[in-house]
């Protein structure tokens, strides 16, 4: 699958780096750490209790900002190496309002940005050093650095970077912008 980005036209002039910094500041850190794990900060899988084609979570800071990871994802829980997410990560979507869950696919109501064709994968044996674990767990804590590194690797083949705007990327990669969404935070 070729790399592509779909985005709301309201973020077209943002660089990927600036958008992710703003998203991170809004999403915050769900504090999914030892001794602090509960249902409110664990997210969920579509397709199974510890694995599936999607993993999604909503911010515990504002209960609206969300992300959805798509691919073939598995969480080890207590199996060795414990608390590791691995598999393939093909897409990531960011925005506000999360719908779906265990019986229907997740979707974001007010989509800001969706990256497809990421082609990232890691084996269970890589543990917390695997790129899938680093990206998703990073996002859960509001840290976009692993994702930004991966995106820079992908964008480099187009002579672009995370400092490029979504509109610049669209001109080269052939991505698309959609009409402005209604800001759910204003509701």
Automatic annotation (TrEMBL):
Signal peptide residue numbers: none
Entries under Pfam families matching the protein: HasA (PF06438)
Binding site for heme: 32, 75
InterPro entries: HasA_haem-bd, HasA_haem-bd_sf
One MF term in the entry's GO annotations: metal ion binding
Organism domain of life: Bacteria
Gene3D superfamilies: Haem-binding HasA
Alphabetized UniProt keyword annotations: Heme, Iron, Metal-binding
Metal-binding keyword on record: yes
Name this polypeptide is given: Heme acquisition system protein A
